[in-house]
Amino acid sequence: MSRIYALIPAAGMGKRMGAGSNKQYLLLDGMPILARTVAAFEAAPFIDGIYLVSPEQEIPFCRSEVVDHYGFSKVRAIVPGGAERQHSVCNGLDAMADAADDDLVLIHDGVRPFVSQEMLEAAADAAREHGASVVAVPVKDTVKVVKGGVISETPPREELWLAQTPQAFRYGLIRDAHARAKAEGYLGTDDASLVEHQGGEVRIVTGDYRNIKITTPEDLVLAEAFLKGKG
């Protein structure tokens, strides 16, 4: 049976949040957002190990205030990030020295704390069967393609999905996709786009509209409301 690893990039600077510290360390009901995210993977019995990616200068803080403070025993390494998220993920994949090609890796944003175990398991199952999967939700609004301030196209809404994370892959597939993108100088919009760029097929797994990425002050307000709604 293949092992399942989590790779959680948390190396962003969080400029849109406008806070004094990086967004992943902002408190959500008294607990850092990143700690809530890691806790979801720590609690999943099918997750064998967790790799975090952090700005290099923040690794000691991440270790003491997140990993050690909350006793996360599955965290195997905290890896220095890169200039872009793609580079950070690539660093994390390179650090997974004992991962086999058929093992699975779930790549998940450090500031998406509301991911469920059911979502993690569904993404892993789809990646095990098909090689790659992305958690996503259908768009609710009509989307317009705009060029020069003028609408040029209205794509059919039923064909449009909002990509979330986790994005799950066989380790060998996503490692090779990152290596080829690096060699070509290709910068994708997410990890799945690197597989797509190489002609690979990525399956959709239906996610949850509450699986938000906390990037703005408004997102933080919404996240607090979600927590209060749980009781």
UniProtKB/TrEMBL annotation:
Site (Positions MEP for the nucleophilic attack): R157, K213
Presence of the UniProt keyword Manganese in the record: no
Keyword list, A-Z: Isoprene biosynthesis, Nucleotidyltransferase, Transferase
PROSITE patterns: ISPD
Main function: Catalyzes the formation of 4-diphosphocytidyl-2-C-methyl-D-erythritol from CTP and 2-C-methyl-D-erythritol 4-phosphate (MEP).
Pathway: Isoprenoid biosynthesis; isopentenyl diphosphate biosynthesis via DXP pathway; isopentenyl diphosphate from 1-deoxy-D-xylulose 5-phosphate: step 2/6
Family the UniProt entry places it in: Belongs to the IspD/TarI cytidylyltransferase family. IspD subfamily.
Entries under NCBIfam families matching the protein: ispD (TIGR00453)
GO BP terms in the entry: isopentenyl diphosphate biosynthetic process, methylerythritol 4-phosphate pathway
Species name: Citrifermentans bemidjiense (strain ATCC BAA-1014 / DSM 16622 / JCM 12645 / Bem)
Signal peptide positions on this chain: none
Enzyme Commission number: 2.7.7.60
GO MF, any single term: 2-C-methyl-D-erythritol 4-phosphate cytidylyltransferase activity
Catalytic activity: 2-C-methyl-D-erythritol 4-phosphate + CTP + H(+) = 4-CDP-2-C-methyl-D-erythritol + diphosphate
Protein name: 2-C-methyl-D-erythritol 4-phosphate cytidylyltransferase
InterPro entries linked: IspD, IspD/TarI, IspD/TarI_cytidylyltransf_bact, ISPD_synthase_CS, Nucleotide-diphossugar_trans
Pfam families: IspD (PF01128)
Positions bearing the site annotation: Transition state stabilizer: R16, K23
Gene3D superfamilies assigned to the protein according to its UniProt record, in alphabetical order: Spore Coat Polysaccharide Biosynthesis Protein SpsA, Chain A (3.90.550.10)
